[in-house]
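yo, XXLT1 xylosyltransferase is done. seq:
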Amino acid sequence: VIVHDVNELTEKLFPIVEAMQKHFSAGSGTYYSDSIFFLSVAMHRIMPKEVTQIIQVDLDLKYKTNIRDLFDEFNNFPEGAVIGIAREMQPVYRHTFWQYRRENPQTKVGEPPPDGLPGFNSGVLLLNLEAMRQSKLYNQLLEPSMVQKLTEKYHFKGHLGDQDFFTMVGMEHPELFHVLDCTWNRQLCTWWRDHGYSDVFDQYFQCEGEVKIYHGNCNTPIPED
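structure:
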């Protein structure tokens, strides 16, 4: 077990993610402490070189299977993919990309699965640190100029930290991601059903198969066994 000091991590992170914080943070401006919400984005720059793969998970999860099975998903990464992540299961990005969608009525951006691009949820993340280090494309996308270019293209302003960054990058470069089955991150939050999207909500929220990990996001109770 290796314990990492949050302050030390934040010190290393801040210069790398400062530029993206203004686009993907809830507050106005850039708060030093907010950098920790972007840890996964630059994990490959912070962890020792001998650490080649990491699973990063939220705390509001309930495991129904051995997490070792999730680690096996690293073996399913297609060539070029650096991160394993499940789709977002609410129409949050249908909402966030509203302006881009209005200007591009035929786009798949923000559309529900299986054919659309609903965005990602970062509650369960497989980070192939070695692949992240080796990927020229991924590291270019961390540059402030590239972040600015993409946020302008998609008229993007989010508040969910690393999840927003991965979602926006995924619209442009889906090849960087191995999409995990929804059963690995079965999100339970239904906030958007009651906030203007009840007509399409179930297209995002449905998840077939036996749940392996429940995610009680937005303080949603997780089912008892």
